[in-house]
Amino acid sequence: MAQRSRSVPRKKPRQERSRATVDAILEAAAHILVAHGFEDTTTRQVAERAGVSIGSLYQYFPSKEALITALFERQIQRVLDVCTEALQSQGSPSTQQVVRDVALGVMKAYAVNPRLHQVLISEGLKLGMMERVQSFEQRIETVVRTFMLHYSSQLRSRRVELATFVITRAIRGIIWSAAIERPELFEDPELADELGELMLGYLLPTSPSRSAK
Amino acid sequence: MAQRSRSVPRKKPRQERSRATVDAILEAAAHILVAHGFEDTTTRQVAERAGVSIGSLYQYFPSKEALITALFERQIQRVLDVCTEALQSQGSPSTQQVVRDVALGVMKAYAVNPRLHQVLISEGLKLGMMERVQSFEQRIETVVRTFMLHYSSQLRSRRVELATFVITRAIRGIIWSAAIERPELFEDPELADELGELMLGYLLPTSPSRSAK
Amino acid sequence: MAQRSRSVPRKKPRQERSRATVDAILEAAAHILVAHGFEDTTTRQVAERAGVSIGSLYQYFPSKEALITALFERQIQRVLDVCTEALQSQGSPSTQQVVRDVALGVMKAYAVNPRLHQVLISEGLKLGMMERVQSFEQRIETVVRTFMLHYSSQLRSRRVELATFVITRAIRGIIWSAAIERPELFEDPELADELGELMLGYLLPTSPSRSAK
Amino acid sequence: MAQRSRSVPRKKPRQERSRATVDAILEAAAHILVAHGFEDTTTRQVAERAGVSIGSLYQYFPSKEALITALFERQIQRVLDVCTEALQSQGSPSTQQVVRDVALGVMKAYAVNPRLHQVLISEGLKLGMMERVQSFEQRIETVVRTFMLHYSSQLRSRRVELATFVITRAIRGIIWSAAIERPELFEDPELADELGELMLGYLLPTSPSRSAK
DNA sequence: GATGAATGAGTTTTCATTCAT
DNA sequence: TATGAATGAAAACTCATTCAT
User: Fold this and answer.
1) For a Cys-Cys bond, which of A85, B47, B127, D115 suits B54, CB 3.0-4.6 Å?
2) CATH 3.20.20.70 is the classification of domain A65-205
């Protein structure tokens, strides 16, 4: 008779019907969350959009918070998958290529439904999930940091930890802003180029013209 | 008998006492907003903290939305003031200095109560104030762009408009993240250095080692 | 085609397995009812503890009310059995013995799971089962009254009907209170003695010292 | 900014209107509680019967539980007042009179809205107010015990503490049962007589005919 | 102007009950 | 027959807003 946390799915779906219901609910929640924000997302709305009764929603998610948490986990997994895959470089690429890969990897990661990511992070913080949020972002940081350490000889010497923070948050800030304020930029190949340049200039050894500061 | 918009202050405070009341309310709202987030900020709480009755609050702000809007305007003004002042460069600074100034100016701007800024932006979006949000950020962009155009000959040629977007959003992303996840970084002088490096590498002419892409 | 009442078991268990299931359900219901109280007893909980599915529970009991009713009947039978047996006096006991037997008999009756008894009575009232409750308690009264009438010549003359009410309810009140507030009293042999004294003083012919009222 | 318990009135009514509202709510709650029982008493029902909005109810009672608690306090006070007043014996009454006074005092106490008393006790237990319930009943016990100790020389020697428990619970049991099952008995003067006899026989020195057990 | 009591629509959540598999 | 996923009415409670004093 283990005590169940309120933020944990009430039960695992065993049958196909269940799984479909759970998926529909999560999908609906993601949609409405992005469209309305957390507080304006009502459980009734989610259930309705998912095409299930409010009772069914609560059968699988014991609270609104649990629903968000589940969505969070799914998003975390997707983002990490994308990021990790992007940074699985093989061969011996040029330094430039390495840096561009970092930029592109982080960018791709944060571009996985950035609006949802943003809402989840912001709500996660309010829901007392600071630790979870931190660990989430830190997992991305870890992937990036590992990658950078591997090529550190080619990179400008610096505090890798701080650099990783700067890189990931800078790119995240750009991606999120683009998602919200300038969605058309996602179509613009130059955005990726600019991110590449931003990272190159930051990570590569100092150029002669800058050394004279 | 023009219909008054619901999002506009009901009346201008004419007397000193009124102004003091309005200020107290805005101050209280800012505090609670940062501490609790928008939805957990109740008008009653704000009135209480401001030391006025709920009725008085509604005398000055016809709705919660109007209160947020007013706070938004105040924040906009403060941020712009800081940004503009920081970018009032005189003399003929070195290119490096120019770039560092941009970085520092934007950083200072976004460091004006970054948590509040963030909540306001995020709520502004929900409240259908997208235009206002855009124009807010664009006013900062304008200051930055103007500054950059002035020194464009010394900077790496690029789409200035896009570059401005990238710069402001990157720095904003870093500042916001630091405010939430790593507040201790605000004490770390290296953070400003890193932002300077990030901007230098991005804005300065391509270094030899990078030209060979 | 008589309409089946909603408060009556849907079907009689014909097979052994059915009977076992029904028993398990009733046992579970009794346990949870005592532990949590009526409103905090959910049918799902009962089914779980009984080790059957919620569907099965409803196969045997068409409603929560029917379940309570069935439990009620079982409790009635048990209480009456205990009471009747206790009052099956043989031989020609002394007057004192008779009175003590009454006290002990009633006490034993109400001590059969007193918490459950209490919940059932209280819920029976809410469920509009006033008649059933009345008839239940009256059956105990009947046993007691019959017994008393049999020895009435030795008892102080009085309205037997009223006396029976007083006796049964007084003892019930004490037993219930002990069950809830002072469970340790059940171990204390003096409690039974006190009940005996209470009944002796009440039922025996008036003593000299009292006649002078 | 002291933390307020959830079971405590949210604020003290300062104005007349407020006091009237609070009274109306408590009155309505008492009525519905007696008629329907705790769980079938909805806050909306109470508000409706009190002629106020649901919001007003929650302005004064932060939870359903707080409402019940407030009612409880009021009932406690009334019952104790009645009991204490009844046992303020002056002069030097006969032993019989003393005992009858005890009986009558306890009876009167438990006859103050006995249905409400019963519901409150039973709900108090569920609400984790066991301590409060205990202390309530113990305050009545205290009044009774004090009274008895005062006349103990005239009473049959026994464990006063246990005797007090037996007396109060016996009478409570009878009164409650009468209130529920036989309300007409309240009109019957013989009921009081019977309670007196019950107590006399229990508390007075053992009569000769009983000593020979 | 200032106050704070009153309002009630709207939110999360529970749980008895049904019925397709 | 047994199962447990699905249902939805109904309950407790919140909070922006109004308005009599």
Assistant:
1) B47
2) no
Answer whether B158 touches A (CB < 8 Å): yes
Using a CB cutoff of 8 Å and minimum separation of 24, what contacts does D50-53 make? D50/D21, D50/D24, D50/D25, D51/D24, D52/D21, D52/D24, D52/D25
CATH architecture of the domain with range D1-62? Orthogonal Bundle (1.10)
CATH code of the domain occupying B7-62? 1.10.10.60
Count Cβ atoms within 10 A of the Cβ of residue B117 and give its class: 0-12 exposed, 13-18 middle, 19 or more buried: buried
The rounded distance, in Å, linking the Cα atoms of C69 and C9 is 9
Question: Is the predicted pLDDT of residue D155 greater than 70, yes or no?
Answer: yes
Asked if the model's pLDDT at residue D173 lies above 80, the reply is yes
Question: How is chain D split into domains, by residue range?
Answer: 1-62, 65-206
CATH class of C70-211: mainly alpha
Whether the domain at C1-62 and the domain at C70-211 fall into the same CATH topology: no
Could you give phi then psi for residue B125, rounded to 5 degrees? Answer: -60, -45
Nearest to C119 by CA among D184, D179, D38: D38
* Mean confidence (pLDDT) of chain B: 83
Q: Is the CB of B50 under 7 A from strand E?
A: no
Using a 7 Å cut-off to protein CB atoms, list the covered nucleotides of chain F.
1-20
Q: How far apart are CA B122 and CA C151, in angstroms?
A: 87
Show which positions of strand E are touched by protein (CB under 7 A). Answer: 1-20
Query: What is the rounded average pLDDT of the residues B152-174?
Result: 85
Q: Nearest-CA distance from B166 to chain A in Å? A: 6
Identify the burial level of C57 via C-beta atoms within 10 angstroms of its C-beta, where 0-12 means exposed, 13-18 middle and 19 or more buried: buried
Q: What's the CATH architecture for D65-206? A: Orthogonal Bundle (1.10)
Q: Do C134 and D200 touch (CB under 8 A)?
A: no
Tokens 């709510």, located at residue:
D25
